[in-house]
Amino acid sequence: MKNKKSIAMAMAAVSTMGAVAPVFAAEIVGTVVREMNLDLLKNESAEVRIKAEKDLEKTKEYLEKMYAEKDTNGNKVYKFTETDTVETISGVKKVIKTIEISRNDDVTNKEVDKFVFTASQLDPGFGQEVPVTTVVVDFGKDEVAYWGETSDEDRVVKGAKAELSRIIYALSKGSNKSTVIKTEDYENRFTSLDVYAGKIGKDQVNDAETVKLAQINIIGKVGAELEALNKELVFVDANNDFLGHWAEDTIVDSMIAGIVDNTAKFNPEQEITRAQFAKMVCEAKNIKPIKYNQDNKEKFDKFTDVSVTEWYAGYVAAIYETGLMKGDGNGTFRPEDKISRQEVAVVLATLENNGVSVEEVTTDVNGNRVHKDTKTNFVDDSKIDVWADESVEHLRNKGFAKGYAVSGGKFEYRPVNNMSRAEALTMITRVSK
Question: Are 194 and 215 in contact (CB under 8 A)?
Fold first, then answer.
């Protein structure tokens, strides 16, 4: 199927093949690429993922600038022809999107430039496939090994239960279009789960048209033990409000790790409250909430607006003890208030700096504490309060807070804007690593 499309439409179509997260990562320079695997946009390595985002952004800029020329009548000199094809490569269907550029005045339609983007897709609406050929889950060693057809080396990941939870989530998103066939070997304590695309019967397993998505070999658990294993896994509901969201992988991983509650309704775009933020930080850094009792009640007397009966009281008390969040200086914590991006910066800069504040404070002639006015590299620097600018610049230098791109290659931090739950979780998990 071929259609003539504008540059913006063509690149928009390419962009939908992989979700791109907001930039909070290190300064990575993108390059123009004519062949790109868009699966890299979901790579588990932040560095690989950000590089792919940058390459895609740079390529889009190149196309918009290079082929925007118009003739004397105001007509576009170049035309874009987009072609979508689907091929099965190593048992996985790949969508191949080709963008060909030619001159409008060339009747032969001679190609001037060409860009090819590839992404894994089993079929429309299937969801995310398991991007491996064989997975071996060994609970005796608590590790997972992958055998991929694109690599000669095995990849072993520690933490079998967490990894199997991720695999189950990926499969459950396409459960209505997949079949799992289980085989158990009691003698060798071995369970095999073979996952196939589509609804098939056991007699169709060896059909030439059958696509095998993954083989999950579970060592050390069979029968009743395998059922007991279910209680140890985290089953993230695939029918959720963050499916396809740019932060989906981070949210799922955080639910599996226990950083946020395992629920189908995460509200990723909802602005996060100070109490919710405090809990996320505590869970990410394994800071245990303090349980109230008569012997430690003084720890709960720091803020007049935090009742010991509230769910967040123990987290507020714990995070106050660490010095990461100290309230507003007026004896209140404002737990239900939204938290601004500059408030987040102060907490996370301190967290990244091993619990030591990065603020630079001196005293004036009257002995009052005065913050040093640190110049940041954001175009809206004047909007950043003096008590937060050291923290904002610290995170920027470390590559955790690049901000929002504006014209001329500049960035805004937007310090007084409130932060969404997805943004907060992303920054917390990246700073906490």
Answer: yes
